[in-house]
Amino acid sequence: MQFIFWAYHMRRQFFWLLLAALFLNFFDRTIGLGGLKKRVHWLVIPLQKGMVASGVKLSENVGFLLDLPVVYRENRRLRAEIINYQKMELENEELRRENASLRQQLGAAEAPTPKIAPVSVLGILQRDNEDFLVVAADGVRGNVLVLGKMLIGEMVSISGDRALVRTIYSPNSRVAASVFTDEGVVGGLAEGKNACEVFLTKVLADSKIKKGDLVVTSGMGGKFPAGLIIGKIEEVSVDEEGIYQSARLGAGWKMGELTTIFALRGLAD
């Protein structure tokens, strides 16, 4: 309030100074105030300086008042960004705690990230009612094959420059699995059925699994590292005895579409 009163007072002062200057200029042009100007020069100069100073101060303060809404909006925007960053940090911290808890439940200790090496897929070989991937053996040292974070299978034999890979679709494939549900982690067994099908079995009937739940390797048995994606549940059914549930999984890849997969090194060199 005090600032507004001061601004109003300065505007009145500027008005009277401007009026006085116009009055003197008018009489100078009509009557001539040459002699008088010399006598009152000491008065005119301070008036001119006062007008300039008052005008500058008034324009500066008016500009400041006009900028206040912009400054206020920018301040609110910055405060909102800070709050948003704080929320993101809290969410990240919650995810870190959740991952640590899940890792503890799965019994998976922290381990160095294994190296990977690309492996060319040459074709499919059917032997004893089982479909194998035929891959180039050059550079293959680990026996676990993946595509991104998805488990493909394990290398079972090498002959010359070629190797055979038993995929998770094989009827002879058994992988210890874990299901991430809304209520926690549930254990089970992923079994292949050929024809690009894999099922989750040995899940107790009272376990709350549903369509869309993620199924990963549990790490039990030591054959496969924990956390590799086997697939997502597409359909759930209960056996006739009502003891176990089974679920058909969607693995997200097909044998005939693979051209390059990757061997994990540092696991079983």
TrEMBL record:
| Cellular compartments per GO CC | plasma membrane
Its GO biological process annotations read: regulation of cell shape
Record-linked InterPro entries: Cell/Rod_1 (IPR042177), Cell/Rod_MreC_2 (IPR042175), MreC (IPR007221), MreC_beta-barrel_core (IPR055342)
Origin superkingdom: Bacteria
One Pfam family of this protein, by short name? MreC
Q: Which UniProt keywords apply?
A: Cell shape, Coiled coil
Give residue ranges for domain Rod shape-determining protein MreC beta-barrel core.
Answer: 137-260
Coiled-coil segments on the chain, per record: 78-105
- Name the family the entry cites: Belongs to the MreC family.
Q: What is this protein called?
A: Cell shape-determining protein MreC
Natural source organism: candidate division CPR3 bacterium 4484_211
